[in-house]
Amino acid sequence: MEKFKDQSALHLFKKGLITENQFEEVKTYRNLNIFSLNAELKLFLYLSVLLFTSGIGILIYENIDTIGHIAILSLLLIVIAVCFFYCFKYSKGFQKTETTFEHPVLEYLVLAGNILTCIFIGYLQFQYKTFGEHYGLATLVPTIVSFFCAYYFDNRSVLTIAITGLAAYVGLSVTPQDIFNDSNNLYASQSLSYSAVMLGVLLVLWTIYSQRISLKTHFGLVFLTFALHIVSIAAISNLTGYDTLIWVIFALILAGSTYYFYKVSYQYKAMSLYVFMIVYAYIGGNIVLFRVFENVDFSDIWELLVFLLPAYFVGSIIMFIKLIKNFHKEIAE
């Protein structure tokens, strides 16, 4: 990493973007071996919020008969009110551009308040049936609150909760074990697969629209990441179906998704989008290849295939590494 940084500084100097004096100052500064603990401290703050909210959930579960529902709800409401009181007090208000709190702890206070709000609304629905039999509202209301908090306080962590809630409202499973489980609704319901694709498309369209009106443009990568996963998983899960027309349609959807996210990964210079795009394209491409040749009799050349398969997978790994290196080089320049 240090060698790469030195080469980057040298590259800037050779292109005339920095002076010789600036280049020497950069080298002198890096030789001091100073490093920042900012990322580590933020990680501990994030873990603290998760542990705190998880602890409240465990406390409610283990003492629900002793404490009482009204007392639990009152305690939650008080903590939520305190969190948002300080957040609104020290926030800069809603702005279309990227904003930050003067103190980073307040960002995690927003996250804590939002998670507790979701717990509070879920508890109301579970215990008192506040929304009656309209269980979707118990998901939609926290989702709306999360979107409001994400945009008002400019918080990416809360935005991920909001998008996850929106996916849950549509009916999509959001946990890894549900996504790859044979009983997952994406496999069982064709209409839900189309809903997943439509949700992914809407997230992409919202990102494009936000770019045009300059509304929280830094949220774009979050929306696109969710869109990539939702559309790709929905497409891949339907490539193994028996209906030829259906798997062909989803193969085309995956191909279109791959092309789009290939382009947008360069636009955002996002390694994560590029890597997952390649992974999904590789999985889907192999499934499609298998479907194309599933009725072909390879009994006469099976020995040749045994020798070719290891070479194919090794070649795939080499190609994957080469693509990543080329992408990293191109976005660095």
Automatic annotation (TrEMBL):
Keyword list, A-Z: Membrane, Transmembrane, Transmembrane helix
Residue spans crossing the bilayer: 43-61, 67-88, 108-128, 134-153, 158-175, 187-209, 221-239, 245-262, 274-293, 305-324
The keyword Nucleotidyltransferase appears for this protein: no
Superkingdom classification of source: Bacteria
Secretion signal, residue range per the UniProt entry: none
Keyword tRNA processing attached: no
Domain called DUF2157: residue spans: 14-158
Stated name of the protein: Predicted membrane protein
